Amino acid sequence: MPPNQYPYAFTACAVALMSCSMRVLPGLQGRRSHRAKQIMTSLTDFALLPLINIEIYLGAKPLYAFIHAFSLIPLGIDILIKLFGIKCDDEIKESMKFANNFIHMASLAVISVIESNFWYFFVMLLYLMAQASLSYGHQNSKWTERMHLLFFTLFFLVSSKAVTDRNVVVNGILLGSTGHALVSVSPFQHPYAFCACAVGFCHAFAGLVESIACEDRCATCFKRLTCSCIEMMTLPMLNIDFYLKSEQSSPLALGHGLFVVPLAFDLLTKVSPNADVEDISTQTLKDLTILGNIVSLLFLAANENNAVYGMMVLAAFIAKYGAMIMDNIIAGTGECIGLLGYSVLFGLVPMALKNGTHTLVS
């Protein structure tokens, strides 16, 4: 979220980053540091959601955007209480915080209904869960703080999607997942799996470039090609490595190399002058190849009694068919679900290639 395009959302992210930094950086002690931490806590409690709301309303209903600036009143009161040590009942402060959060979450719920945008609702829901994790969590429990931070992280991830309407976040997750897999997998010991991870990395990078470059033509064309590659190459290449690793099923490994035929047809379709019109026979061949490789990995998971393979089957199914189902239910979610599915798939690759086995059925 660039500051020149989304100043309020950028400010919210900056406040959260500074607040987290002050918690973890060593050497921040003393009276002044304590006061600074208190101010950052106030900003986190009273300013994050209003800033995100202002940014969302500027894109959807600009007329009502700056109504959310009323949060400056409880924010100012809370900061004055902490700075000057004014005695105030904790219940009053909690009531101010609750009222502020309730109004802004209600505002998000309203705009999500008016605009029929489920991302706004998810922003509200994640913020609610972040606050609820503190209110109803176990006292003095590390898990309470971890859950709180987890929900806040998801809150900012979903907020970036809701504000920018770009898949920067999920592409970033895929980039991190494939990058970790590339570092963990040796290209000499597992060349096919390494190649599959490299394809995923290129696709994530292309998606990031397209999002940042505002759908530049070259970036879009490159992403179309990598999209075909990640769909057609990933699972067959992984299957080859997994089957070669298997003692019982290794003779079947190179049979998965037949994916090059539908991949070649699909790439030729993408680079042809009529690239916008996809051939039905090519699409059918591609779907059969993907489904066949999912079934093949499922067979190997059952044959080897390997739980990681089973999880990879589920991730691959979600990446392809779960994305299609979700896109039919909620328009615009298909690509996000697909990228998240591939992120999980690539994240499991290093674990699947380890010598240790994780049994599917004990």
How far do the termini sit from each other? 47 Å
What shape does the CA trace take? elongated
- Secondary-structure element pattern, one letter each: HHHHHHHHHHHHHH
Give the overall average pLDDT.
79
Quaternary state, please?
Answer: single chain
Q: Note the main sheet.
A: none
Strand content: under 5%
Which residues sit in consecutive blocks of at least 5 with pLDDT less than 50? none
Number of domains: 2
Number-wise, the strands total: 0
Helix/strand structural class: mainly alpha
Descriptive keywords:
transmembrane, mainly alpha, 2 domains, single chain, DUF4791, elongated, membrane, 76% helix, 362 residues, transmembrane helix
Structure explained in plain terms:
It is built from 14 helices and no strands. The model has no long low-confidence stretch (mean pLDDT 79). It folds into two domains: 7-164, no CATH class; 167-356, no CATH class. It is elongated. It has helices spanning 7-24, 31-46, 48-60, 72-84, 90-115, 118-135, 142-164, 168-184, 191-212, 217-245, 260-271, 280-304, 307-329, 334-352. The protein has 362 residues and is an all-alpha fold. The longest helix has 29 residues, at 217-245.
Set out the fold topology.
Blueprint: H1 7-24, H2 31-46, H3 48-60, H4 72-84, H5 90-115, H6 118-135, H7 142-164, H8 168-184, H9 191-212, H10 217-245, H11 260-271, H12 280-304, H13 307-329, H14 334-352
Give the structure's gist in a few sentences:
With 362 residues, the protein is an all-alpha fold. 76% of the residues lie in helices and 0% in strands. It has two domains: 7-164, no CATH class; 167-356, no CATH class.
